[in-house]
Amino acid sequence: RAAARDVTDRVAAEQALRRSETRFRTLFKLLPVGVTLTDPQGQIIHTNPASEALLGIPSNDMLRREFKGPYWDILRPDGTPMPPEEYASVRALNELQRIDNVEMGVRRPDGGIAWITVSAEPVIDTDLGVIIVYSDITARKRAEEALREREAMLRGLGDNLPDSYMYQFRLGPDGSHRLLHVSAGVERLCGVRPEEVIADPQKLLGLLDPEQAPAYFAAMEDSARDLSVFIENVRQRGADGQWHWFRVCSQPRRGADGSVVWDGVVIDLTQPMAVQQALQASESRLRLLSDQLP
Fold first, then answer.
1. CB neighbours (10 Å) of residue 27?
2. For a pLDDT cut of 70, what percent of the chain falls above it?
3. Hey, is 252 helix, strand or coil?
4. Closest C-alpha among 162, 203, 158 to residue 179
5. Distant-in-sequence, close-in-space partners of 271: CB < 8 Å, separation ≥ 6
6. Whole-angstrom distance between the N-terminal and C-terminal Cα of the chain?
7. Section 199-228 average pLDDT
8. With contact defined as beta carbons under 8 Å apart, do 193 and 199 qualify?
């Protein structure tokens, strides 16, 4: 009886092991993230279909590689080459600890780059070396790059507007205010650097004509309350120390926290106004002369 029970127990254990292995293989195949297993020497011994799709490397080719071999072309997030000692898998095996969320770009056989975030954990006292799990962040990286390019374009546009500068101003729910962005033109027109007025908005607001400042801020309060377009002509000290006329045009929007942010542009009207005044004076003289003709 004891022998029969031993056989029965062994058969049951073998069946449980086969079921466990079947579940593992099925899960391994179905996981939507790349998974790679190595032996203690770093030789790749298992990889799943998601890994093949993500990296573009056939599984039979992967199984001929080591995790830090010369055939890998890995990039850091800034685009420079990443040496093997910075790989999450190599660090995990060398340091015998879990390494999480290392971003890298892997050059695919078709020349494209798969951007992934990698976590790796060593497996001690087994015939495995390290388990490597990685997910695709290529779409996110492309979106971030597109955003950087758009921001660079907008900065270039704002910094090169003639006789103008762009700004973004925030009024908090508590009444606090600060400049979120000011383009380089503010230094040409007002003699203060963008970083100075972002650190202390009063360096710019303090240049307003004191007689006009109350009306200017009252109009801003109306704009904040009604979310109406803000358009004001205001006198302000320019970079030359003289009074200049500026037109401030901006569109407010309300944030989820109750703050109001204006995206706008400031245009120096001094030269156009001088031309207009000269033209009006000339027209007045011509009318006077015409009236005096017999």
1. 11
2. 82
3. strand
4. 203
5. 163
6. 142
7. 94
8. no
Contact 135, 153 (CB under 8 A): no
Record the tokens describing residue 149, joined without a space.
Answer: 């390019």
In Å, how far from its chain's centre is CA 177? Answer: 24
CA proximity to 89, closest of 114, 108, 60, 69: 69
Quick one: tokens of 4? Answer: 């029969």
Contact (Cβ atoms closer than 8 angstroms) between residue 1 and residue 9: no
Answer whether residue 294 shows pLDDT above 90: no
**Tens of pLDDT, residues 71-81:** 899 999 999 99
Whole-number Å distance between alpha carbons of 168 and 179: 6
The answer to whether the beta carbons of residues 93 and 84 sit under 8 Å apart is no
Summarised one tens digit per residue, pLDDT across range 276-285 is: 555 555 555 5
Six-digit token pair at 229?
């377009």
Instruction: Answer for the pair 223, 252: CB distance below 8 angstroms, yes or no.
Output: yes
What HEC string does 92-139 produce?
HHHHCCCEEEEEEEEECCCCCEEEEEEEEEECCCCCCCEEEEEEECHH
Question: What's the pLDDT score for residue 112?
Answer: 92
DSSP letter (8 states) at residue 165: E
Token digits for 24?
């593992």
H or E, element range at 277? helix 270-292
Please give the pLDDT value at position 5: 59
Place of tokens 């020349």: 111
pLDDT at 289 over 90: no
pLDDT at 174 over 80: yes
With beta carbons less than 8 A apart as the criterion, state whether 166 and 183 touch. yes
